Amino acid sequence: MIDNHIPHWGIPHREVIMSSEHALIVGAGAAGWSAADTLVRSGWPGPVTIVDPTGPTNRTLVNKGVLTGLLGREQLGRPIPAGTELLEDEVAAVQADGTVHLRSGDRVAPTAVVIATGSAPRRHSFSPDGDAGAERILPLHSIEDAERIRSLLPSSGGRVAVLGAGLIGSETASLLADSGVDVTLLARSPLPLRDQLGPTVASDLLRRHRDRIRIRTGRDVARAATRSDIVVVELSDGETVEADVAIVAHGTLARRPSVGAQTGALTVDARLRTGLRGVYAAGGVASILSHGTAVRVDHWEDAAAQGAHAARSILHDLLGAADPGEYRFESGFSARIHGGTLTAWGVATRATQWSRHDSDEAVGVGRHFGQVTAVAGIDAAGTVRSIVEAARRDLREPLHRYPIGV
Ligand SMILES: Cc1cc2nc3c(=O)[nH]c(=O)nc-3n(C[C@H](O)[C@H](O)[C@H](O)COP(=O)(O)OP(=O)(O)OC[C@H]3O[C@@H](n4cnc5c(N)ncnc54)[C@H](O)[C@@H]3O)c2cc1C
Fold first, then answer.
1. 123-250 falls under which CATH superfamily?
2. Which residues line ligand 1 (CB under 6 A)?
3. What are residue 334's DSSP bridge partners?
4. Ranges for the FAD/NAD(P)-binding domain (predicted)?
């Protein structure tokens, strides 16, 4: 049913009545693509429409491909899943009754909706002094960000300050160093990535950074002054770092349309339901809640796994297919950093208890209540794989049964 409410952004609207069993996937990234593909492959009886202003894009190549100049923007696109259709539009809001409002002014009433709108970069907390060069302090999240950063660097390499030594900051620092850029990596934590990868692997990564680039740890950025052709970053201990560009790599926050009365990341249950009938969420936009703890993971494979899980929950809830059960964070990710290959699996938080694996390799094993929930290693993919296989065999309960989180 469609009501006659005028969308709050004031664009006159047209009404689109969907055929029955219409699935609408909001966002064509890792999670949305996979949700749409799973629905089609599982025999969803009606049309599957993906709404995205840009179409499917592989965001993981923004730094590895576009920033390095190895790939052009068109090479990050992906075809839409077979059997689906793409609507180049943006979703502005999903009402409590499931009605979806598009920026174009259209409104639709699908049977099922998966919100997979991903994330936005977390902003820096300092206010840059001076305005002429404010555009030299940039996030690295979109193709446009990567192209802008490239345009600000001289062909001889130039200097970059990377603010934040998480996975994207660390990988980007390494990629830039490979391209001949003079890199300074600035980290608030004394041991960056300790919570996510454990102290064994985090210490190995820190050593690799120290061998290859300039790194300052345990210090905040106090301010950044921009001039027309330079940015000067001042640390909390007074040290200054000059660069052509400062890349802000402070992690991500959920990016989303307005959905019912929810604010912040979209909280979903362990079957990825938002609480609005027929509306699900997956990927970087979603925070998965179980036993009082919300966990948000923003990695490609995990987003794709969440998208597929949301699709299976839809098939179960609306068509009576088998119950997919509670979602488990059992995906992996890898990165090349200063010549080493980081391989990791699962999910870790501050509450994870890490120990070094009993081998000569840099491998850490993270546990909750004795259950292995995260594994990380450098140049140790085989060992990580065998620990993961054993952990999967032992996994008696979904990870959500364990009180992950702070
Ligand atoms: C530079 C960089 C490098 C990365 N490298 C890695 C890596 O090596 N390994 C890894 O595991 N992860 C990596 N990631 C993280 C990974 O890209 C994300 O975790 C993953 O893309 C999340 O998938 P998603 O589907 O939730 O969001 P996205 O893939 O970001 O897709 C969201 C989609 O939603 C669309 N959208 C947004 N708002 C709306 C709206 N209102 N209406 C309609 N559509 C909308 C967007 O256009 C976009 O296409 C990287 C991220 C970045 C920024």
1. FAD/NAD(P)-binding domain (3.50.50.60)
2. 26-32, 51-54, 57, 59-60, 62-63, 90-91, 116-118, 140-141, 168, 255, 257, 283-285, 298-301, 303, 333, 335
3. 343
4. 24-307
